[in-house]
Amino acid sequence: MKYKPENPAPANADALRKIAPTVCYPIDTLPKPDMALYRAARKTLTLVDTVITAPREACCFHVPAGHFFRIVSVEGPQVGDLNLWNANDLNETFYSGKTRALHGTHISTGDRMWSSFPAMRPMATVTYDTLDWYGWDEYGGSVHDVIGTRCDPYTNDVLNGVDYHHCCHSNLIRALAAERGISPNEAEVFVHDVMNVFMCTGFTPDTKQYFMKASPVRPGDYIEFFAEIDLLGGLSACPGGDCSSGHSSDTAACYPLKVEIFRTDDDMLKGWQSPALNGYSRSHGWP
Questions:
Q1: What confidence tens digit (pLDDT) does each residue in 64-95 have?
Q2: How far apart are CA 196 and CA 82, in angstroms?
C-alpha cells in the first residue's frame, strides 16, 4: 500500500504511466499438459482412499504419481489451504510464487502447480474444477488463489497480540509432524505458501491490498488434480470457514473437507511419465 507521495511527478509522468505492460513470463513455450489424455483417463477413475480434514485442523494424504485426487466440499462452505511435497523429498515443495508468475493469481483447469528450485517441474495439474463458472467478479475477485501465504500465528500476534494455534500454518505443521514422526520445529521449515482452495480473493482497486470474500463453494463442489510425481499433500480446513469475514479465530462457522484419491486403468496412461527434474546445470556461472 502506497501512502501520499512526497515527491513531485516528472513532466512526463502521464506518458510513463501509459507505457503498455509486458507479460514477465510468456508461456507459449511452456510444456503443455496432455489434457486429452487426462480427460480420457478420468473416465475410468476408481476411488482408492478417502481422508477427512476436520474443521480448524489439517490432514496429510498420499497420492502416487499417475493418480488423481479431489478436494471436496462436504457439509458447508469451507476454504482449504493446500501444501504439496515430493513424497520422497520434502525439500521439493509447491512454489506458489512461480506458479502465480506463470499462470496468474488464480488457477483452474489446465493450470499446473510447480515445484521449488532446483527441481522446478510440474507437481500436479488441475484436471477439473466445478467452480470454473465463477470467473472474475465485479471486485476483481476469483477462486483458488496462489496469492495468500496462509493464516499464521505470527501475523496474528503482530496484529492482535494473542496466541492462536489453529491457523492454517500451525495446522499444517501439526499434520506434517504427525505424518513424519518429527517435531513441530522440524516440520515448520517444510510448511510453505499455499494454494487457497475454494477461497475467493483479489486486490482492492485503490490500495491493492489482498482481500477475501465469501466463497461460492457449496457441498458437492470439488477441484481435481493429476499427480505428476509421488505427492504428500497437506490440507488445512481454514478457521475462517468461507472467509467471508475473518480468520485466525474460532468465531466463523467451519466445516470438514474431504480428499479423495483415485487410480485410473493402467492402460490409460501408456507413454506417460513423471516430468524430469529441471534441466538447468546449476553452475550459476561459477568458474
A1: 999 999 999 999 999 999 999 999 999 999 99
A2: 6
Q: Report the distance separating Cα 75 and Cα 253, nearest Å.
A: 11
Distances (CA, A) of 267 to 57, 81, 129, 261, 272: 38, 33, 25, 18, 10
The closest of 134, 156, 147 to 208, measured between CA atoms, is: 147
φ, ψ dihedrals at 87, nearest 5°: -60, -20
CA dist., res. 8 & res. 213, Å (int): 36
For the chain, strand residue ranges (E) read: 46-53, 58-63, 68-73, 80-86, 89-93, 112-114, 122-129, 142-145, 195-203, 210-213, 222-227, 231-237, 257-263
pTM recorded for the entire structure: 0.97
Reading the block at residue 188, the C-alpha cell is 515448520
The answer to whether the beta carbons of residues 132 and 109 sit under 8 Å apart is yes
Helix (H) or strand (E) segment spanning residue 102: helix 96-103
Task: State the cell numbers at 112.
Answer: 499446473
Alpha helices per DSSP H over 181-250: 184-188
Residue matched to cell numbers 457441498: 219
Q: Which SS3 state, helix, strand or coil, does residue 287 take?
A: coil
